[in-house]
Amino acid sequence: MAETLAIRTARPRPVPWRSILLHLVIALGAVAMFFPFYWTLVTSLNADSRLDSAPTLWPADPSLEAYATLFTRLPFARVIGNSLLLAVVTTLVQLFTSATAAYAFSRLPFRGRTVVFGIYLATMMVPLQVLVVPLFAELKAFGLVDTYLGALLPTFASAFGIFLLRQAMNQVPTELDEAAALDGAGHFRIFWTVMLPNIRPALATLAVFAFMGSWNSFLWPLVVLRSPEVQTLPVALAGLQGQFTTQWDVVMAGSIVSILPMLAIYLFAQKYVIQGVANTGLK
């Protein structure tokens, strides 16, 4: 018996080839996804960058001259401030409108609720390109073209945000609402003290998506914002290719500047995003 146990103990464990292969594929995928960002950073630090040659893995003479050009020869600080203003306001307003509408669809029984919610979700299938002309004509009639408010108004409501928060609110037990109602709480108090604290991961997820959507928005700001004083970052980046056709280090420096805020926000809210998507049942 002891000899049998000794033989079993001494037997070498099989090599987990499947696990090794899986981790190798994941590592290769991570490198493939990270390399364009790394090459963009290296190009922004190399003053003699050219796109018709092989990618440089390390700058021969690292320099921040391209970043200095962005903020001295161009009003890039104003552009970043414009994008930041629009993104923050859009995020805050979308959180408010989406949360209140989601509470109504989740907790307030009214006739035709399912039909109205389905129609509202159907608006997600309408692309922005279809709405650009009527939106522009409407804002022009109200004198809101080339203004911050004109750029913000179409972004104040989000069908995706309402869907995301409604799914999260449906996961909150109704017993909590009933207990709060027995204590004399009305809908506003239930919404503020019961519902919102229980859907914080979903709120963080929507905040990241809303901020990212506004920060990267190109078509609508290009159409409605005409003056350089109100120009946003994606539009300014597109203009860099025309002003600095051969200075790719300046173009790449602008790309790095546009990436850094989103990277910082996502790293900060990553756990909330994953938890929010898991709790709402989205895949």
TrEMBL record:
It comes from Agromyces mediolanus. The chain crosses the membrane at residues 20-39, 84-105, 117-136, 148-165, 202-223, 250-269. The keyword Transport applies. InterPro entries: MetI-like, MetI-like_sf. One of its GO terms (cellular component) is plasma membrane. PROSITE patterns: ABC_TM1. It holds the Pfam family BPD_transp_1. Belongs to the binding-protein-dependent transport system permease family. GO terms for biological process: transmembrane transport. Its main location: membrane. It is a multi-pass membrane protein. Keywords: Cell membrane, Membrane, Transmembrane, Transmembrane helix, Transport. It is found in: Cell membrane. Residues 80-269 form the ABC transmembrane type-1 domain. The keyword Phosphoprotein does not apply. This is Sugar ABC transporter permease.
